[in-house]
Design goal:
There is one protein chain. With 68 residues, this protein is mainly alpha-helical. The chain is 37% helix and 0% strand. The protein is built from two helices and no strands.
Length: 68
C-alpha cells in the first residue's frame, strides 16, 4: 500500500477534496488506477494547454479540444 505525503507523492483518492475522487463520483465509477492516470493526464493538458484531449476523459467544462 502506498502512503500519502510525506511518504510519497501519491494522493488519497478517497479524500473528498481530491479532484480525482470528485470525478469518479460524478461518473458513478469505482476507482481504477488507469482511469485515475487518465484524469491526471487530462488535467495536466487542460492546465498547460487550455484545451482538452478528445482521447481522454473530459473532466472540466472546457469546450475547446486540442488540435492534433
Amino acid at each position: 500500500q502506498k502512503l500519502p505525503s510525506p511518504y510519497s507523492n501519491c494522493l488519497n483518492v478517497t479524500d473528498k477534496d481530491s479532484i480525482y475522487f470528485k470525478e469518479f463520483q460524478k461518473q458513478n465509477k469505482t476507482y481504477q488506477q488507469k482511469a485515475c492516470l487518465n484524469i491526471c493526464q487530462q488535467k495536466y493538458i487542460i492546465e498547460n494547454c487550455g484545451c482538452y484531449s478528445s482521447s481522454l476523459t473530459q473532466i472540466e467544462t472546457i469546450k475547446k479540444p486540442c488540435l492534433s
